């Protein structure tokens, strides 16, 4: 097991303990609502966002307990976005992480409500954190903006609209990448920075945006070169549905070249951060060559 694998496992285990406490406290009715929430939250995944937050916290010397509820809120928001993204009206995928999508198990209506429930609960968690003081308010606001109409939702809307219109250029693609994917991968880095009164705020924010774009770019590449067994979701859908992707705009080799450039930029940004940034360096290299 590589050092990155070891750290991801460590962070995931710590986060899953927080998640278990949350799931054990769920008392919502009817039962299908609780079951649908748990189904998607327990479906697995690498827990990349909580892991990035915990790693950033270690880098900036933030106690992990200060970050746990933020990490939980982020993962609830991320999971809601996946449930909705899989719906027929969105990305129309029957599988997620190798299992039937939420709407295939519980129906489209219940899947919508499961996603809504996760998002509302995440905001309730963030509001509770705001009681601790101004910097906690700022951290909560950053997550909300990253997830909302100036972040992920804007990117998803642009993805649907420009895909349907058949429009694509580098500016549109950059907007989709930055908002749909990158902002929710920037939030776990910026929250610890905010809680340390802005330590390396600019560097971590810039790293997060570039890393998020790299993550989405490699996702586009995997839709061409990946397989269901590794990804746990359908492949070849981007071309079939004429989606706005780097592969469509630049070709497969052009997309790979841009991934190399983004990875190099990420590593250079980390050079401006004092402390042990090896986790993030390894994460960049893993993402560049990832198969899942």
| Named CATH topology | Farnesyl Diphosphate Synthase
Number of domains: 1
What's the CATH H-level homologous superfamily?
A: Farnesyl Diphosphate Synthase
The main pleated sheet reads as:
2 strands, antiparallel
Q: What form results from the Cα inertia axes? A: globular
**What separation lies between the terminal Cα atoms?**
17 Å
Q: Any idea what the CATH architecture is?
A: Orthogonal Bundle
Task: List unreliable stretches of 5+ residues.
Answer: none
Global Rg: 18 Å
What's the mean pLDDT score? Answer: 94
Strand content: under 5%
Helicity range: over 70%
Which structural class best describes the helix and strand composition? mainly alpha
- CATH class membership: Mainly Alpha
- How many strands? 2
Short synopsis of the structure:
With 292 residues, the chain is mainly alpha-helical. It has helices at residues 3-24, 31-41, 48-59, 68-85, 102-106, 108-130, 134-147, 152-165, 170-195, 201-225, 228-231, 237-240, 246-270, 278-288; strands at 95-96, 99-100.
Kindly describe this structure.
- The chain is mainly α and 292 residues long.
- The protein has one domain: Farnesyl Diphosphate Synthase, CATH 1.10.600.10.
- The protein has helices spanning 3-24, 31-41, 48-59, 68-85, 102-106, 108-130, 134-147, 152-165, 170-195, 201-225, 228-231, 237-240, 246-270, 278-288, and strands at residues 95-96, 99-100.
- The chain has a two-stranded antiparallel sheet with strand order 1-2.
- The chain starts with a helix and ends with a helix.
């Amino acid at each position: 097991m590589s050092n990155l694998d070891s750290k991801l496992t460590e962070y995931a285990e710590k986060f899953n303990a927080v998640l278990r406490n949350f799931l054990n406290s769920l008392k919502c009715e009817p039962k299908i609502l609780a079951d649908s929430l748990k189904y998607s939250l327990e479906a697995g995944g690498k827990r990349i966002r909580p892991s990035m937050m915990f790693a950033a916290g270690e880098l900036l010397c933030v106690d992990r307990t200060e970050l746990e509820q933020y990490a939980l809120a982020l993962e609830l928001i991320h999971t809601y976005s996946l449930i909705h993204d899989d719906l027929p009206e969105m990305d129309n995928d029957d599988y997620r992480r190798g299992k039937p999508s939420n709407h295939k198990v519980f129906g489209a209506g219940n899947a919508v409500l499961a996603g809504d429930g996760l998002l509302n609960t995440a905001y309730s968690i963030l509001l509770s954190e705001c009681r601790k003081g101004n910097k906690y308010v700022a951290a909560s606001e950053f997550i909300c903006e990253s997830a909302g109409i100036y972040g992920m939702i804007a990117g998803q809307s642009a993805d649907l609209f420009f895909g349907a219109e058949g429009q694509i250029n580098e500016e549109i693609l950059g907007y989709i990448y930055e908002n749909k994917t990158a902002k929710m991968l920037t939030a776990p880095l910026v929250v610890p920075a905010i809680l340390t009164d802005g330590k390396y705020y600019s560097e971590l924010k810039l790293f997060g945006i570039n890393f998020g774009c790299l993550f989405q770019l490699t996702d586009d590449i995997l839709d061409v070169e990946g397989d269901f067994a590794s990804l746990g979701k359908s492949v070849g859908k981007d071309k079939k549905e004429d989606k706005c992707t780097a592969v469509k705009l630049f070709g497969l080799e052009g997309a790979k070249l841009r991934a190399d450039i983004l990875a190099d930029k990420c590593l250079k940004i980390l050079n401006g951060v004092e402390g042990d940034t090896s986790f993030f360096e390894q994460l960049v290299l893993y993402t560049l060559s990832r198969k899942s």
